[in-house]
Amino acid sequence: MLRYILRRIFLMIFVVLGVSFVVFFVINLAPGDVLSKIAPEDATLEEVEALRVELGLDRPIMFRYLDYMKGFVKGDLGKSYITGDDVFKTYMAKLPATLKLAFASIFVSILISIPLGIMAAKNRGSWKDNVSMVAALLGLSMPNFWLGLLLILLFSLKLGWFPTGGAIGFKSLILPAITVGTGLAALLTRTVRSSMLEVIRQDYLRTARAKGVKEKIVINKHAFKNALIPTITIAGTQLTRVLGGAVITETIFAWPGVGRLILDAVYSRDVTMITGCIILKSITISIILLIVDLLYAAVDPRIRAQFAKGGK
């Protein structure tokens, strides 16, 4: 297993290189530049060009990229052109808020999807199955921004139960988590249902029933455990999506996370901030996916055996 982990970490290097290259070049090719944001309104053309030279923006893009990566190798992700703040420190300051939202959203998703998916599989073709699938379809169809606005109107403005935005305590986390989590639950519910249907009529479950094992234990202990791998896959993938930044939800609820940080940097053409944040986001996502792969081994002995052979 150690060999497998080391190999994944080695491959992460190429992921970071590829992501940084694409982001750096795409942002630099986009119309406008950061000088329009930081130069004084009354600055002359000569002053703007002098500022461009000072920031090194007059150099060819390939040289600027190589200089940036030299700093990255040394642990320096640069400083924001707009605020002058260190990119790594800024990202790490925003990351806890994104982690809170991500894990809270996954918790909401699991809380909704697993009971619904199991119920739908147990009652295939019945009204319970149909209701569960309609609920999942509604979750897939409902845009996050629309659901978030509805929740704000009802629970914040009308009932006054929760704040309209910001990160000022546990209450401020509930509505954003529900907004993101319900959308994630839709896909996860269908995955749980499909996985359960594949195992629920297996011979070993019939044997357990014939031995007098209670149906609740057959479903929850034996069937669901064998249906966990696809569920873990989808849940892990969804977690990486939210860790990448639920930009729309963070904007609606004024949530101070990584998604809003990157969006603001894009608007400002802050190349250093954008590149650094996306590199760090890529590393975070790669680590999460590695953890998900290792969780497979915890629930499936066959995968543990593969890891023991070096992941082949």
UniProtKB/TrEMBL annotation:
Classification via Gene3D superfamilies: MetI-like
Keyword Ubl conjugation in record: no
ABC transmembrane type-1 domain boundaries: 95-296
UniProt-listed SUPFAM superfamilies: MetI-like
Localization per Swiss-Prot or TrEMBL: Cell membrane
Membrane-spanning ranges: 9-30, 101-121, 133-156, 168-188, 278-299
Membrane topology qualifier: Multi-pass membrane protein
Assigned keywords, A-Z: Cell membrane, Membrane, Transmembrane, Transmembrane helix, Transport
CDD domains: TM_PBP2
Chief localisation class: membrane
Record's protein name: ABC transporter permease
Organism per entry: Fusibacter ferrireducens
